[in-house]
Amino acid sequence: MSEFDWESILPATPLGEIEKDIQTLRQGFRSGKTLDLNFRLDQIRKLFYALYDNVDAIKEAIHKDLGRPVFETELCEISFQWGEFNNVVSNLKKWAADETVKGTTIQYTLTRPKIRKRPLGTVLIISPWNYPFVLTISPLLAALAAGNTVALKFSEMCPHTSLLLGKLCTEALDKEIFKAFQGGVPVVSEILKYKFDKIMYTGNHRVGKIILDAANKYLTPVILELGGKSPVFVTKNCQNVSLAAKRALWGKLVNAGQTCVAPDYIIVEPEVEQEFIKACQYWVEKFYRGGVDSDHKDFTHIATPGHWRRLTSMLAQTEGNIITGGNSDEKSRFLAPTVVAKVPDGDSLMNDEIFGPILPILTARSVDEGIRYVHENHDTPLAMYVFTDNASEGEYIQSQINSGGLIFNDSLVHVGCVQAPFGGVGQSGYGSYHGEDSFLAFSHRQTFMKQPHFIERPMAIRYAPYTSRKQKAVQGSLAAPSFPRTGKVDRSLLERIFGKLWFWVIVLGLGAASLKSGIFL
Q: Which SUPFAM superfamilies does the entry link to (predicted)?
């Protein structure tokens, strides 16, 4: 497939229709229909069964676009997404319930402040090509669950999948709450001219900055999932180096490395370097039965010729030692699983996120040297993987590097925990989703309270004229600090109990009851 073949498969949305479609979504939100939780649940159910009933067609479309094995699609996309549907449907009413504000001062006792999770309005989701099912449906599900109307720009780089998903979603969902947009840069550029209440983009840094610039015009909040170079630490305290290589390689090679949280490079200590290299050679051969070529059914191809050329150019310029793989085929966009050892710091493989089936192993260094390398070159990765059986060492590495997510002794699988937040930090993006965080990501937490009429007299102190009597009353009501000027700041359990008003109310109540009953007489 050439870079432009998608146009013959995926008709672009006419630019003249975009404004009208966005206006329809705004009117749909203003109708108030999405405030009804039962309406949201019904829409989610319709979406689920539209996808569920066509799952074989979805898997086939992904295979046409990426050449990905059906098993990988089932493992990494389908099973995850079905679980997320179940989680949202089971918990939506609990997530959406008003939340009582706890720990308020006495002056707010009668106003009973609460938090309501309100939908933001009309949101824009721009989905990527590398996991075109789950990274499209997961944020769509979140936005619908939170009560928004959704403009969804599908990726033109996976045209068969985008065409099918756009059709299924449009048929399943209310026409006033969902619109599918297809096409390339002109379509995205036109969409970004209009105001949205939130934008979510999954992709690369370059486009992420363009999204931010467009959103800034309207002060629109943005969720960015940008990826980056996610490091793997293999320390001398790793007791099963072969297993570490097996799990790190799986994380790198699934979807041919075209995964935002794929292990990007290995930092291995000298004591286990050679064992790790040999284990990598062994497991690549074991995974792919002695070799991989362009016809291998268990290995995904590179998405576009442009991406293939970028990867093969990086590999051609590396100063490291290719210990396995390296073979490629431009016509089929195939690049074999490739491990490169003894990679120097400034190597062609170490400048940007690889996003392909190439795994560099940096020249052996200590844990502290590895930490310094991450700080100085690729700080705040989207994920980090630490293979060690020394708990204190693991805690130390975790404390030194701020990554979006972290797994000890495995790779990738944290993304599948649909109940836990997933997202980047710093250069790897910001904002998180999955589970309740998905719901909150597309909601506004609105504080509200109800002030009773009968407390007007004590509240009258706030009105002018500001007399000296009022000033003294305010000064007398100021809360004293609950912590000392010096010494230990955090109070002990007993100090916290004795400092509670309810404790003394109970003591006085028991004392009064005792006197009345004559216990102490």
A: ALDH-like
At residue 1, the pLDDT reads 40
Structural contact between residues 421 and 433, judged by C-beta atoms closer than 8 angstroms? yes
Alpha-helical segments (H) within 408-500:
435-441, 456-459, 468-477, 493-498
**Whole-number pLDDT of residue 2:** 43
Among residues 76, 158, 169, 260, the one annotated as catalytic is 260
162 located within any domain = yes
Listed as ranges, residues in the chain with pLDDT below 50 are 1-2, 4, 520-521
Q: How much is the pLDDT for 502?
A: 65
Q: How far apart (Å, rounded) are the C-alpha atoms in residues 463 and 60?
A: 70
Phi and psi torsions of 435, nearest 5°: 60, -145
**Chain centroid offset of residue 387 CA:** 23
Whether residues 401 and 253 share a domain: the answer is yes
CB atoms within 10 A of CB 485: 6
Does 176 qualify as catalytic in the annotation?
A: no
Give domain status of residue 91, yes or no: yes
- Segment 67-94, tens digit of pLDDT: 999 999 999 999 999 999 999 999 999 9
User: Does 404 lie in the same domain as 376?
Assistant: yes
**One domain, residues 241 and 279:** yes
On whether both 69 and 154 belong to a single domain, the answer is: yes
CA-atom Rg of the chain in angstroms: 28
Order of strands, edge to edge, in the sheet holding 263-268?
Answer: 321-324, 338-343, 358-362, 263-268, 230-234, 383-387, 405-408
Task: Give the span between the Cα atoms of 364 and 391, in whole angstroms.
Answer: 22
pLDDT at residue 425, as a whole number: 95
Say if pTM beats, i.e. exceeds, 0.85.
Answer: yes
Catalytic residue among 77, 84, 156, 225: 225
Whether the CB-CB separation of 44 and 84 falls below 8 Å is answered with no
How do strand 149-153 and strand 178-181 relate by DSSP bridges? parallel
Active site residue 156: no
**Mean of pLDDT over the chain:** 92
